[in-house]
Amino acid sequence: MLKGVRCETAKCPIEKKQRNVKPGMHGWTRGRLSDYGVRLREKQKVKRYYGLLNQQFMICFHKAERAKGNTGQLLLQMLERRLDNVIYKLNFAPSHKAARQLIAHGHIRVNGRKVDVCDYVTKIGDKITVRNSEKSVKRIKQQLESSPNFTAQSWLQLDREKPEATIVAFPSRDDIQIPVEEQLVVEFCSR
After folding, report:
1. What is the CA radius of gyration of the chain?
2. Quick check: 112 and 134 in contact, CB under 8 A?
3. Residue 64, class by beta-carbon neighbours within 10 Å (0-12 exposed, 13-18 middle, 19+ buried)?
4. Percent of the chain having pLDDT more than 70?
5. What is residue 110's three-state secondary structure?
6. Which of 3, 13, 21, 75 would be a feasible disulfide site paired with 64, CB 3.0-4.6 Å?
7. Can you tell me the distance from the alpha carbon of 144 to that of 141, in angstroms, rounded to the nearest whole number?
8. pLDDT band at 87 (very low <50, low <70, confident <90, very high)
């Protein structure tokens, strides 16, 4: 706006100077991440995907660490089976935060009992239903109708009419769609 006539040509000193320089006082460049930084990024990816705080994440990690098997896969499997994530995967809610709100407000039942704790870890055979009130059922059916082509993952069995779902199996690594290297997360948390 306040540039002179010369700035309308290719010889403009302002444009020339800023053309090849990255933002920052001296053209700041991002260096290569250290090993610590790479592992931290992987952990942060998982935490942000599931919307967990550090303490919640570490509790899940320690449970996975104590169990027998591959710690990284067990960790992702445990996070995938959390009730708030299952509600999101069943398309009962448009986001993880909305799923947490549904659970906290008492709209969800597991095996006929009200569960208002988002970090409840589901098991095989658990039946997830909606509270038997017009408001709850209407809200869930409205969400299910908003995406008619939605299909539940292979480890979940969804009945759209009632609406209810059953946990058929544990999720496999193929079902978990996060592009993360779980071994790096384990290495970071184990130190």
Report:
1. 24
2. no
3. buried
4. 84
5. strand
6. 75
7. 5
8. very high
Q: Tell whether the model's pLDDT for residue 173 goes beyond 80.
A: yes
Q: What is the largest CA-CA distance in the chain?
A: 76
**Pairing relationship of beta strands 127-130 and 164-167 according to DSSP bridges:** antiparallel
Cα 127 to Cα 19, 71, 85, 185, distances in angstroms:
59, 27, 15, 31
pLDDT band, residue 185 (cuts 50/70/90): very high
Q: What is the pTM of this model?
A: 0.80
**Residue 160: pLDDT band with limits 50, 70, 90:** confident
The first and second tokens of residue 50, run together, are 């599931």
| Domain annotation for the chain: domains and CATH numbers | 35-81+178-191 (1.10.1050.10), 82-169 (3.10.290.10)
Q: Which residues pair with 167 in a beta bridge?
A: 156
What's residue 31's pLDDT?
Answer: 77
**What pLDDT does residue 4 have?**
61
What is the residue-wise DSSP string for 15-73? HHHHHS--SSTT-----PPPHHHHHHHHHHHHHHHHT--HHHHHHHHHHHHHSSS-HHH
* CA-based torsion, 82, 87, 91, 93: positive or negative: negative
Distances (CA, A) of 48 to 23, 57, 96, 171: 27, 10, 11, 20
Q: Which residue has the higher pLDDT, 112 or 8?
A: 112
Q: How far is CA 2 from the centre of its chain?
A: 47
